[in-house]
Amino acid sequence: MFGRPSALQQRIKKLRSHLAQENPLLLQVVKSFRVLDGVAYRLGMLDDTASFTTRVPWWPMISVMGTFSSGKSTFINFYLEEKIQQTGNQAVDDKFTVICYSNDEVQRVLPGLALDADPRFPFYQMSRDLEAVAAGEGSRVDSYLQLKTCHSEHLRGKIVIDSPGFDADEQRTATLKITDHIVDLSDLVLVFFDARHPEPGAMQDTLEHLVANTVRRPDANKFLYILNQIDNAAREDNPEEVFGAWQRALAQKGLTAGRFYSTYDLDAAIPIDNPTLRERFETRRAADVDAILERIEQVEVERAYRIIGVLEKTAHAIEEQLVPTLREARRRWRRRTLWLDGIIFGAIGAGLLAASVWAGYWQGLTFSAPWFIWLTEHPVILWLSLAALAVATVYVHFRLRRAAANGVAAAMRALDYDSEILEWMERAFEQNTRAWQPLFGAEPAGWSTATRKRLAQVLAEADSYVQTLNSRFTDPSGHSKPRRARSGDDKGKAAPRRVSATASAERSEPPPGSLAPEPVMVAPPADFVREEPAASPGGGDSVASGERR
């Protein structure tokens, strides 16, 4: 009772302390996650050292993906106003790079172990997942991941992930595993294509994995498709045909709706001699870059919706997938166990009966074996023999229970569910088949009326959180007074960042209330908390739900 708090309790305490200053609504979401943890503990999905709160990235994540030499790194350097990523016409980086804010103005590159061993980052224990999909790759996590630190104010409160290009004929399984992991966790995914090679054959892998496999996702709106280096089309007789060929390639993979963007880097652009054509290209670029940057600023709002969505999705997965699957698995386990009991014990009984008949121990319907008559004359030995027989019977029965459970578990692992849900099912089923669990119970262990009520409570709270967020940004009745938009002269707030057609983008100051991190090299996202109040860069108060004021 008075012992030292566990590592999990300390992490959740830090998370709550941070969210209390940065986003009080998400502080309530943490409480709902802890209720969901209680349900998971009862069902056996998680052990008491794990929590759903540690499986959610609490910091906005922006992923940049696409073909090699499509300008991904150039765009990141442009956005951060720091030359943090190498650029070139060939593949210059074959690792997934997590870029995180740091107080130190000196940029540093840290190995993949920094991400794999730190639960505050989205790649915690990624080596285990890599080993599961490709034997031996788990020990090579440094070959797949790296962490870079950057002092750009545009990175404060965000994580940017740069990915290697999709151009190999067959992507390695481990690389695709990391890509899927990033896509699932990201609030915004920028997919870059090279306007110099807009034909489908040059970007087949990108089209297949980042277009065809994502158009049916429930969060497909978080993908932005960008045709970069469009300035090269100025040399064509019909520049619009380049953009049209790219859109047709996307449409062939099922992407027929949505907003598409075309950009290029002003500093590296080819000269466009025709002033009318140059103005048209620069105007379109400015509008599209502005739209992309505005969407990036929206990730702080979308982050809150994403986290609430994870809460709701997890609760639904327990109720609609895990519990019914466990119920069916228990039924199959019970049936297999009874069949095995019948076969094994029936065979043993039939064998003993045949042996006794062959030995002549039966006088009509009376069993008269000499050793049996001797046992009846020594009751103590008789009872000890019966006890030994009962122990042997129970031992064989539980071995058969375990064999039946292993067979059902193997079939369960082949189900078409997410790997995380399958892991929960396997752990919960193991709890259901332990020796002290009854064979004839209809419901999974831990699933009761109280558990159902807790799950219903979490779902109701998730709906309430969404309504609260909606009330912050919408007013269908129109009764609320409009909030005055703060100008760039207001204290602690700079004018919003825009991109002109002829110059580099102006950078906005960080929002008022951006959390000033502790004086450490890296400001990690999830569990970060200040020991002492620190002034925000703009001198204002903290903002809630990522809302820009």
Structural summary, described in words:
The chain is α/β, with parallel strands linked by helices and 549 residues long. Among the domains are: 233 residues, Rossmann fold, CATH 3.40.50.300; 120 residues, no CATH class. Helices cover 47% and strands 8% of the residues. The chain has 14 helices and ten strands. The chain has an eight-stranded mixed sheet with strand order 3-4-2-5-1-6-7-8, with helices on both faces. A two-stranded antiparallel ribbon has the order 9-10. It is elongated and about 115 Å long. The chain starts with 6 loop residues before the first helix and ends in a 76-residue tail after the last helix. The C terminus is likely disordered.
Q: How would you summarize the topology of this molecule?
A:
Layout: H1 7-22, H2 24-43, E1 61-66, H3 72-80, E2 96-101, E3 108-111, H4 113-116, H5 126-133, E4 145-150, E5 159-162, H6 173-185, E6 188-194, H7 204-212, E7 223-228, H8 239-252, E8 260-262, H9 275-297, H10 299-359, E9 362-363, E10 366-367, H11 370-376, H12 379-413, H13 419-432, H14 449-473
Parallel strand pairs: 1-5, 1-6, 2-4, 6-7, 7-8
Antiparallel strand pairs: 2-5, 3-4, 9-10
Helix pairs in contact: 1-2, 2-10, 2-14, 5-6, 10-12, 10-13, 10-14, 12-13
